[in-house]
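Example record for the data management plan.
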Amino acid sequence: MNAPSPLNLALLSPDPAADRAEKLALYGWLVGQWHIEVQAFDAQGQQYRSRGEIYAGWVLEGRAVQDVWMIPPRAERRANLSASDFPVTGPWYGTTLRVYDPTIDAWHIHWIDPATGFQSRMLGRANGADIVQEGALENGVRLRWSFRNIKADSFRWSGEVSADAGRSWMMQVDIAARRI
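Corresponding structural encoding:
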């Protein structure tokens, strides 16, 4: 068996940092491996279905959660995937870094997807039993990404967009996840 790479040793952590473990619990439940069923909706309401995977873990001495989201699953990926294969979402293979900021009692969320060329920055906070992340793109379109119905072995994730400063929202992506 191969030894862990130097990057894995420097990046990955077995547990959350003890000095902020309570606040880190907001996203701590995400740590693990997930199968996702994806529904994506275009601007006309046409629905597209796909599947994927999520892998999440503690990183940076347990001070952050990092995850990798992909559509389709790794076993089904091929070199010539294109946006036309996955309308609305494209073939995701990106990572989120989630870092708690005690000065604002919120999480900085940075999603980077080199497979589709999409990036976003958001702030995440608890909203009752849910988690809501909000941000805006450079063109002014607002984003709202939410985790709902969070359980030990499942959750729902939705991605919404608003072109009118949050007066109305359009569902772009709805995901049902189950722990593997």
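Summary line stored alongside the record: The helical segments are 6-11, 21-28.
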